[in-house]
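call fold(seq) -> tokens
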Amino acid sequence: MKIYSFKIIFLVFTLSVSFNGFSQQLLQKSDAIALALEHNFGILVATNTIKISENNKDILNSGYLPSLTTTAGANYQQADNITGFKGAINPNTGEPRPDVEILNAETQRYNAALNINYTLFDGLGRYYNYKRLKEQYNLTELQARETIENTILQLFTIYYEIARLTQNLDILEQTLKISKERLVRANYQFEYGQNNKLDVLNAEVDIATDSINMINTKQQLKNTKRDLNVIFANKVQADFKVDTEVHFIPELLLNQYIENANENNVTLLQNNTNILISAYDVKVSKSGYLPVVGLNGSYGWNENRNPASAFFPGNVADSYNLAAGVSLTWNVFDGGGTVTRVRNSKIALENQELAKNQIVVEVERDITNALGSYKNSIEVFKIQQQNVITNQNNFERSRERFKLGQVTSIEFRQSQVNLILAETNLNAAKFDAKLAELQLLQLTGQLLNIDF
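ret:
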């Protein structure tokens, strides 16, 4: 199976992943891929489909082997025979010749034969059909590869959503901690008459808001983890964490992938294989114009056990037969069926070639769009990084001034909200950029050839 030549597939055999009995086990990206490849239902179905195609392309399904049949039979007959001789005189006694009576006369017949038939030439139909079956196997492998690519992309869409929610939850926990410290400070200031009750109430409202946001995020995180576990066929029983680190592929390497996209894009490869299959269909159809030459042979045995009769004694006769022959069948005219099949197969081949032209244009468009989205996402990510630094500095200054009483609680809360928004936007931008990169890698046919 060619799909196992991809680097990513070997993870199934090299990784042993167990999450039972551990709390908050770290689910690495490679572990997630291994679990999906081993347990995902769609991938398992695709693998079984490859096995079926592999059986179909075997020599046993090629028509190149002879057919061998055996036949055997047995017959039994029992009869009572009475033979009369009307008017016949026994010359020895001069008396009328008596009837001859044979009771329970048994007749037995046995036969067995071994027959062999072999098609010596069928107009090259089986030759091209055998090649067609091999290409069909290649097509099935490519379809399985497409299933794996889509599953991996779906996996990381959910995986990175878990990572985003995890980091957002850390931000919200830190925010809640700061809000609780602010409430303690507001209560002290209120007790010593340094502020009014409004600051305390504002702090309590903000704590409630931060608590609700954290509870909702926790629930979203649990739901998303269950979504990821579905891809693994629910094989991960314990809770787990994910790797939140993201590494991007160097631009130079990415450009090389784009240049070779037409040679590696799975949709284009499938179309090329379909063209080959259609070309073989034309040749298989043309084989109907040529004769079929066949060889046949047989070896048989017959035995007859005959009872005694009025004129002959009983006997046993055995015979052995060996026969061989050559046959030639030429369907000179089949009512136009072969002509029609050839014409239709040529049209099907033309359609596949037209489809290739369309797919090439669409793939070029999709890669250009994906590259644009990727570059845009990277640019947004960089801007968000700087935005976080700016808001972090603003928050720290507001925090110090708040402690000195130089800014109000509302102004301090606004700087806190701005920082939360900047940090969550940075998380979203980071994982959006990585997913855009993975989509671009899928279009260039390199998704299964990279290290995650």
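Residues 1-23 have pLDDT under 50 and may be disordered.
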